[in-house]
Write a structure and sequence with these properties.
With 140 residues, the protein is of the alpha+beta class. The protein has 4 helices and 6 strands, in the order ααβαβββββα. The protein has one domain. The chain is globular.
């Protein structure tokens, strides 16, 4: 679900802003999109209410990234009022559609016809670990 729509409390809004900051620390040239999904009936019917999705757009296609845009999907498991991050997916898109996908499920596989350069994958994995720390750290 669009991050802009999930920002329903001060705590969650702050964490979403922190995710953007963490991503931009690794990839400073990106432009952020807090509403990556269209607001039509077909798209809304497929949205996961337990996810927060943020788009990041590069200034152009880059061979080190093998994409022009990246979509970060954070998936949560909720029990009552408590929820915890259970997985992230980062997808790379070009004008030809999805090029690659990094999932934090299992051994963090990267799948797709094209893959980002290893140093960019390392930055993405660092970002994913930081997001886990942000959402799943014990409360004071």
């Amino acid at each position: 679900m669009n991050a802009a729509e999930q920002a329903t409390s001060l705590e969650l809004t702050t964490k979403i802003a922190s995710v953007v900051t963490l991503f931009k620390a690794q990839f400073p040239m990106v432009r952020t999109d807090l509403k990556p999904w269209a607001n039509d009936a077909d798209t809304r019917s497929m949205m996961d209410p337990d996810s927060i999705d943020i788009g990041f757009h590069l200034p152009g296609w880059n061979p080190k990234y093998e994409c022009r845009s990246m979509l970060v999907q954070m998936r949560f498991f909720s029990e009552g009022e408590a929820s915890r991050l259970i997985g992230l997916e980062v997808l790379g898109f070009s004008y030809n559609g999805e090029q690659w996908r990094l999932s934090t499920v299992g051994d963090w596989p990267v799948r797709g016809e094209k893959r980002p350069a290893e140093e960019k994958l390392d930055l993405l994995k660092t970002f994913c670990r930081q997001v886990y720390e942000l959402f799943n750290s014990p409360k004071d």
